[in-house]
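> forwarded from #structure-qc
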């Protein structure tokens, strides 16, 4: 059978790993797919850069749109990144010229996924994006195909390798946030602008895609509440450990009576849960589907080889002639997403603040919590070990509260009242607890 001819736009870490994997697995791929897979053209900025792979036999393009329209390719692989600009223009050009597209671009899909899926449908070609979420973890196929017959109630996971790497090294080795970030950048995990990772936007883009696949909604990053990990202090990681928790940046999408709640924020997870065992750059996704026990997929969530592995599985599907609706159903059947208000989120909370070290403080805090019907699972007031800390000298002590399930609105109101009472100083740290 004729080979499947592939054109790749973007030959960075992922593109180079993909070319190497296709070459290394040539025979195995041909046997599995029933036809060979050949990279015939590439598009990249610098022709002279050494990428560790042989590009000599490939046709060279400097314009990704021209590559996308090249009649000599069957599949256009987009590995440039960016929600708009050349990536979007090239993907649109490929689809409208009847070529299947494989992309790892979560930003593009979270923003324009529905329109692109409609274009793929119109031209009867594939739009595959396994690599956009969780790199090597086959989560897109699991939701779209493996669980096509299940009603999903909740999907949550560690979707950003950089953040998990930082939190793990801070917790296990006591390293500073900045030091861990620098290492994540050196290892090629972080986005070009690491604020995207740290502030939770990368996780939100991935969550928008997963929520669409899980709940049949239109991918829409704007429907997601987002908080990053930059406020997490070593004190939170230590306190979490002592209280039987770990802090992870989670993306969570769940069915609620108010709609699909979608949120990204640092989260306390029980230390004995499977998600808490996930360390370093590893990602994990848990799916709660009606009538069956939760399913957790764990694997490498960032890096060249891990991402290329997912891109290659998408190319293999096209070589085999497999084509699914990109978001698991025809685009006309995708529903508008209703943003569930965060104030109505319900769950347990970890709250840490500096409290005035005077008689009556505990009573005032207890009263404010009781007014909002917040019940406490534990309360810890601690003095710094050894010499008094600055805060203790200034007449305040660190207090940590763990609440039973309550609402976000109640917590915010209670903390605002406590602040007005002037029994705490500074901004309280609030971390939601996820049941798992
Ligand atoms: N910056 C991303 C991460 C890369 O750290 O997970 C994979 O999407």
């Amino acid at each position: 059978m004729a080979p499947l001819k592939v054109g790749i736009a973007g030959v960075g870490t992922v593109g180079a790993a993909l070319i190497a994997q296709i070459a290394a697995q040539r025979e195995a791929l041909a046997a599995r797919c029933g036809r060979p897979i050949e990279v015939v053209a590439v598009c990249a900025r610098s022709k002279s850069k050494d990428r560790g792979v042989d590009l000599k036999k490939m046709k060279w393009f400097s314009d990704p749109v021209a590559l996308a329209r090249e009649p000599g390719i069957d599949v256009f692989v987009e590995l440039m990144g960016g929600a708009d600009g050349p990536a979007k223009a090239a993907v649109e050009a490929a689809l409208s010229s009847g070529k299947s597209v494989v992309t790892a671009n979560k930003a593009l899909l979270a923003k324009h996924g529905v329109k692109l899926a409609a274009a793929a449908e119109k031209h009867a070609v594939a739009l595959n994006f396994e690599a956009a979420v969780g790199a090597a973890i086959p989560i897109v196929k699991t939701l779209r195909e493996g669980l096509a017959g299940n009603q999903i109630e909740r999907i949550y996971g560690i979707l950003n390798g950089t953040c998990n790497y930082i939190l793990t090294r801070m917790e296990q080795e006591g390293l500073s946030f900045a030091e861990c970030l620098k290492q994540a950048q050196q290892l090629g995990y972080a986005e070009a602008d690491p604020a995207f990772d740290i502030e939770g936007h990368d996780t939100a883009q991935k969550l928008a895609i997963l929520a669409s696949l899980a709940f049949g909604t239109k991918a829409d990053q704007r429907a997601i509440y987002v908080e990053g990990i930059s406020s997490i202090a070593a004190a939170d990681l230590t306190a979490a450990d002592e209280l039987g928790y770990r802090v992870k940046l989670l993306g969570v999408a769940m069915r609620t009576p108010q709609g699909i709640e979608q949120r990204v924020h640092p989260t306390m997870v029980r230390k004995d849960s499977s998600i808490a065992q996930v360390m370093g750059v590893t990602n994990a996704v848990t799916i709660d589907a009606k009538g069956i026990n939760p399913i957790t997929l764990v694997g490498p969530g960032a890096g060249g080889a891990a991402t290329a592995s997912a891109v290659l599985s998408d190319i293999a599907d096209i070589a085999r002639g497999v084509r699914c609706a990109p978001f698991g159903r025809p685009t006309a059947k995708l529903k508008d997403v209703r943003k569930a208000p965060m104030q109505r989120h319900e769950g347990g909370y970890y709250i840490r603040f500096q409290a005035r070290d005077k008689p009556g403080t505990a009573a005032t805090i207890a009263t404010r919590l009781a007014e909002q019907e917040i019940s406490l699972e534990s309360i810890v007031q601690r003095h710094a070990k050894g010499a008094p800390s600055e805060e203790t000298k200034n007449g305040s002590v660190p207090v940590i509260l763990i609440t039973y399930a309550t609402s976000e609105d109640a917590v915010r109101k209670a903390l605002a009242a406590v602040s007005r009472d002037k029994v705490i100083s500074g901004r309280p740290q609030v971390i939601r607890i996820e049941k798992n």
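QC bot note: Residues 135, 160-162, 189-191, 197, 202, 301-302 surround L-homoserine (CB under 6 Å). The mean pLDDT is 94.
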